[in-house]
C-alpha cells in the first residue's frame, strides 16, 4: 500500500525499489522480475499499478542450462496468479512465461 515495487533476488544479492506507478523500465538489475511485473500489470490489472514486494531465490546458477530463468518466471507468475486470483491453466501459465522471457525480454532459452 506504500506505492512501491520492491524486487529482491536473494541468491544474487540484488534488489531494487521502484515507484509502482511509474513505467517499469526494461533494465538491470532484475530485468526478469521487472518484465514479469510489467506484463502482469498490463495484461491482468488494466495497467493500474501494483504495489508489492517480490522476493526470489534460486539454487541453480544463471546460465547453467538447468532452466533456472524459465522456472523462475513460471514460479513468480504463479505467485501473482494466486495473489490476484487469476484463473490461468497450466498451459496458459507456461505460454505466458515463454512470451515474457523469449518475446518481451528477448532472452534465449527453453520452454517450460
General description of the model:
The protein has 112 residues and is of the alpha+beta class. The chain is 41% helix and 15% strand. The protein has three helices and three strands. It has a three-stranded mixed beta sheet, with no helix packed on it. A hairpin with a 4-residue loop joins strand 1 (4-9) and strand 2 (14-19). Helix 1 packs parallel to helix 2 (68-84), helix 1 (31-44) packs across helix 3 and helix 2 packs across helix 3. The longest helix is centred in the last third of the chain and has 17 residues, at 68-84. The mean pLDDT is 93.
Shape descriptor reads globular
Note the run of SSEs as H and E: EEHEHH
The number of E-state strands comes to 3
The rounded distance between the terminal residues' Cα atoms is 33 Å
Low-pLDDT segments, ≥5 res: none
Gyration radius (Cα, Å) is 13 Å
What kind of sheet is the major sheet? 3 strands, mixed
Count of helical segments? Answer: 3
The side-by-side strand order for the widest beta sheet comes to: 2-1-3
Q: What fraction of residues sit in β-strands?
A: 15-25%
